[in-house]
Design brief:
four-stranded antiparallel β-sheet; 8 strands; alpha+beta
Length: about 270
């Protein structure tokens, strides 16, 4: 690949009226390369800028600015239903799986990816769900929790800079986690009052995950927000008898507080 300076000089000579052959002879490059540069199919300034943004923009490596609210939300989605895979030439893909029943959630996932990185997210249709993906060489930098194996089989600890963001925007993280592995439902209970059975409906939030560390991360965020919660563990037969943690938010004031920034999925 020729240096950027050679490409710029070739484009400058073209503006002066030089032919492709004259430029190629003067710079000692192939005429095919010169033609590609001139027509913009290869090494055009706009293409180079997009390529540079995809490969060198990184809040960790280059200290670039990071959209902290968007990152807090995307971190929750990643911890719940996301993973990172490596492809050729060191490119990594961040994938978040969203149920097809919630088109608004899919759009919010795409928007958060685009705000965290200057990338173009795309969708891959799966059975019953949509995989939202985006490519970058630096996804493992932004999500250092990435590693071999499933999340519940390894420690999931936030880096110091991640904790700072979560402490500043705990609502975003909680929202991302409830959007991935949580739900808001109307719970119906039956009570006997003066000899008669009466039914009551009230909303509550649930979050289920098999990683104790992810529960700890969510609990810290809920404590910062001022949300009361309960947590219980149970065996799941279809999950090879792993313990599953089920976090519940049922107090009226706490549910109302979560409704201000989460609400039902849509």
């Amino acid at each position: 690949m020729y240096p950027r300076e050679t490409v710029d000089e070739a484009l400058l000579l073209h503006t002066l009226g030089w032919t492709d052959r004259e430029v190629a002879t003067a710079l000692g490059v192939s005429i095919q390369s010169v033609r590609h540069w001139r027509t913009g199919r290869r090494r055009a300034p706009e293409t180079e800028l997009r390529r540079a943004n995809r490969t060198t923009y990184c809040p960790i490596c280059s200290k670039a600015a990071l959209d902290r609210p968007a990152y807090s939300y995307l971190l929750g989605l990643y911890l719940g239903d996301g993973h990172i895979t490596r492809h050729r030439r060191g490119v990594h893909y961040l994938s978040v799986f969203c149920t097809d029943s919630y088109p608004s959630l899919i759009r919010q996932c795409e928007e958060s990816m685009g705000k965290v990185f200057p990338c173009t997210p795309f969708r891959v249709q799966r059975v019953g769900c949509t995989e939202v993906k985006a490519a970058s060489k630096h996804w493992p930098c932004v999500f250092p929790q990435h590693g071999p194996g499933k999340k519940h089989s390894r420690r999931i600890l936030l880096a110091e800079w991640q904790e700072e963001i979560v402490n500043e925007y705990p609502q975003g993280l909680a929202r991302g986690l409830f959007h991935s592995d949580g739900c808001r439902i109307n719970n119906r209970v039956r009570r006997k009052v003066r000899g008669e059975w009466k039914y009551y409906d009230y909303p509550r939030y649930f979050f289920s995950n098999t990683s104790p560390d992810i529960h700890v991360i969510l609990i810290r965020s809920l404590d910062l927000i001022g949300v009361e919660w309960t947590l219980r563990w149970q065996k799941l037969k279809n999950e090879k008898h792993r313990d599953a943690g089920i976090l519940s938010v049922a107090k009226r004031d706490s549910v109302a507080l979560l409704d201000t920034f989460i609400g039902p999925k849509s």
